[in-house]
Known about the structure:
Two copies of one chain form a homodimer.
Chain A: E1 2-7, H1 11-23, E2 27-33, H2 36-46, E3 50-54, H3 62-72, E4 78-82, H4 87-96, E5 100-103, H5 107-118, E6 121-125, H6 126-137, H7 151-160, H8 166-173, H9 177-191, H10 196-205
Parallel strand pairs in A: 1-2, 1-3, 3-4, 4-5, 5-6
Helix pairs in contact in A: 2-3, 3-4, 4-6, 7-9, 8-9
Chain A binds a DNA duplex (30 and 30 nucleotides) through helix 9.
Amino acid sequence: MIKTVVxxxxxxxxxxLKTILESGSEITVAEIGSSGSEAIALYEKHAPDVMLMDIxxxxxxxxxxxxxxxxxxxxxxxxYLTTFSDDEYIVKALNMGAKGYILKQDFEGxxxxxxxxxxxxxxxxxxxxxxxxxxxQRKSAFDFAAHDISEKxxxxxxxxxxxxxxxxxxxQLFLSEGTVRNYLSSILDKLSLRDRTQLxxxxxxxxxxxxxx
Amino acid sequence: MIKTVVxxxxxxxxxxLKTILESGSEITVAEIGSSGSEAIALYEKHAPDVMLMDIxxxxxxxxxxxxxxxxxxxxxxxxYLTTFSDDEYIVKALNMGAKGYILKQDFEGxxxxxxxxxxxxxxxxxxxxxxxxxxxQRKSAFDFAAHDISEKxxxxxxxxxxxxxxxxxxxQLFLSEGTVRNYLSSILDKLSLRDRTQLxxxxxxxxxxxxxx
DNA sequence: AATTTTATATGACAAATGTCATGTATCGAC
DNA sequence: GTCGATACATGACATTTGTCATATAAAATT
Lengths: 213, 213
């Protein structure tokens, strides 16, 4: 028997979920809650095998609640439910160590998902998974401001990361080649890099995705 | 009732799988096969709801077989089994549209995985999923062979893409700096690039991921 | 054994790169 | 109006880079 706790803002949803989950003989819903803080409390109270939780709720996002639970119980199995792929959260949930992320519309799929999660698998809705590659790309945007990188410097970074030479960059931005060099020099200094190649590497590994390209 | 076909090189494995899957009352194994070509034939013959397939087999990789099946039946549900995370294949399988990728050691997890897949979810073993973020970065591997890029040249590409100077690369590979330059020169020529920075850009956008890093 | 390939190395050279000190014009603050 | 900041530019310099022609020894072919 798999013991679960269901958390959803909308009572109607959580009750339907309870019904669905308990319609088989494998799953029980120990209790249902409707907020992030309740999620934490109920996890402590029941120590469920699997916790099903809505991603977006009033007081706290499901992510935050999940983080708290996981920091106290690293082996907690949290399965997120979402109405319609809330893109932003998918990657976070994944990195956080959530065991799954599925659409709640998908009634039939939920019970099997719970039991797969119980057995150590991770489960993702088809649509969710499909978007994943693209979401994954977007790395954590690098905080240029924190490093005193000006607008113009950022433009230059982007062009360097496109493989342009100083001369080409100069032409593109209507600057003299010398000026471009000066900018570049200051960029390298600020980021503690040695040359344009390292800057390109930096761009593709640490930052990326903020602006164009 | 979920109809499945199981494909595994090792008869022992496929028979055990059959037993496990059929121990519940939800899944039947219509037939078992042991090669990529058989996979295709058996898919045609039974049109199973879910096909469980080993990743590495004699005649053909599970990936190839899967590709063929999916091109003929885009909605086929293929669930890959792997002995121990064969990293290289994970991303391919995912992009290809496989419904899951789980460890076969994980007996208990397999049946729930099959039923979750049947319901439209995608299922991944915990270990598999954990590696995913890092594997994802690595774009579709570039075909070095097609461009006459030698082993040594590839090593150099990787180091350039790490931001090392010629001198550093030379030290790393126990070559003279001049030799490194020569290699690099020939690489640039073969790939029609102009300088090391463009090579790094190339590495992060077009190829990447074949070797280390 | 003779020959070709392969892997490595050199040296010479031009171009690109990065650094630095300095110069000039504009613009806003005081 | 002066002062200081900002944005752009220069020139000089050392280094690094990329290209090319050539060399050598070992390994593979013949």
